[in-house]
Design a protein that fits this description.
Layout (H helix, E strand, L loop, with lengths): L7 H21 L5 H10 L5 H17 L6 H34 L16 H5 L17 H22 L2 H21 L12 H17 L1 H5 L7 H12 L5 H21 L4 H5 L8 H22 L4 H4 L2 H46 L1
Helix pairs in contact: 1-2, 1-3, 1-11, 1-13, 3-6, 3-8, 3-11, 4-6, 4-13, 4-15, 6-8, 7-8, 8-11, 10-11, 13-15
Length: about 375
């Protein structure tokens, strides 16, 4: 009997993807050194691991909620639970950078990039609109993907209703949204849509999120696909090592392929090298790691190098320190902040939702 509900491979990919994004962004802090320039040139494609997050998110959200968002109450509960998961840490990291902006304003700190902290961007940040609005990446800039995710969450109830009526429509949506993005990028002369972030990041996320949903809806059929031994074990390291040689849109297709191979392994209940390595045990730290890595770099690498008066070469020693601090901060954040607050917010919403229902029953 196959375990069609397990997501060990997808969970393993999530933490690997988060680690890749950390390497990409931390390399940028050392781009004035040969090793930094080498890493930046060969890790640019790691930004596409965010699209892997979107695919896995579509699968997991469909698995948990596809048949449970069929009225206003259930839709409200779904959206609140997603906010309870992503918003507190977003707000905390945003507050950190707003405090830093205040310190810069009053001369208590200095920066080489003051344009990163414009208070005019705060409304978009607070409303999770910064995957659509903004001239540049600001504050805790990886949070653009939260805005893109929220866009997908808002559309999800309609997509779930569509899936209940005709599953094939979700497959069509993957193709239609990808083509629409491509046509817009061509007509407007923008960068490839796989590079859209603060202007159009939500539209970039939609094909991947829809692909994840489609994978869940057709998981039984996917489980029957012929298995290619070692395909995932070759595709993932191959992309990591050589993906920088690919054109952007080709690299995005490889990311989608890697996600599909992981979904197939999960749906078929197969074990692979990835599942045997046990990366999935660290997957709960994915969000914490992703959201905290830039604040940690700001404190450890930027402020640390200034306080210690390190030369560019000496500064490199702070990279492993930042990674160690990030790992510790992620564990602490998950255990003492994110999980308790999410539980509190979820329970508070449920209590508030139950009271009117009880009152209506008592009034009958």
């Amino acid at each position: 009997m196959h375990d069609t509900d397990g997501t060990r491979h997808q969970d393993g990919l999530r933490i690997i993807a988060a680690g890749a994004v950390v390497i990409l962004h931390y390399s940028d802090y050392f781009k004035d050194m040969p090793v930094g320039r080498f890493m930046v040139a060969r890790t640019w494609h790691f930004n596409l691991f965010v699209d892997l997050f979107f695919v896995v998110s579509g699968f997991v959200i469909a698995r948990q909620y596809c048949d449970r968002v069929n009225d206003a109450a259930s839709i409200g509960r779904f959206l609140w639970r997603r906010l309870a998961r992503i918003y507190p840490l977003h707000l905390a990291t945003l507050a950190f950078y707003v405090a830093l902006a205040g310190a810069l304003h009053f001369g208590a700190a200095r920066t080489d990039n003051p344009a990163r902290y414009p208070l005019s961007d705060l409304p978009a940040q607070l409303l999770l609109l910064h995957a659509f609005i903004g001239e540049r990446l600001t504050f805790n800039f990886p949070s653009w993907s939260l805005s893109a995710e929220m866009f997908c969450y808002l559309l999800f109830p309609a997509l779930a209703l569509l899936a209940q009526r005709r599953k094939e429509a979700i497959v069509a949506l993957v193709i239609i949204t990808a083509l629409a993005n491509s046509l817009w990028a061509w007509a407007a002369g923008t960068t490839p849509w796989a590079d859209w972030i603060n202007q159009g990041g939500g539209f970039r996320a939609l094909p991947a999120f829809s692909l994840g949903m489609a994978c869940y809806l057709f998981r039984t059929q996917i489980a029957r696909w012929p298995a290619i031994p070692g395909a995932l074990a070759v595709a993932l390291p191959g992309f990591i090592l050589f993906g920088s040689l690919l054109p952007t849109m080709t690299a995005l297709l490889v990311i989608y392929l890697i996600a599909l191979l992981a979904v197939q392994a999960d749906c078929a209940g197969r074990k692979t090298v990835l599942s045997k390595l046990g990366f999935d045990r660290w997957s709960p730290l994915t969000y914490s790691c992703y959201m905290l890595h830039i604040p940690v770099a700001t404190v450890v690498i930027t402020l640390g190098s200034r306080l210690l008066s390190l030369s560019p070469d000496e500064r490199l020693i702070l990279a492993p320190v930042a990674i160690i601090v990030l790992a510790s901060a992620s564990v602490i954040s998950l255990r003492t902040f994110e999980t308790p607050l999410r539980r509190y917010l979820t329970e508070a919403y449920d209590r508030r939702a139950i009271r009117p229902a009880i009152s209506r029953q008592e009034s009958r």
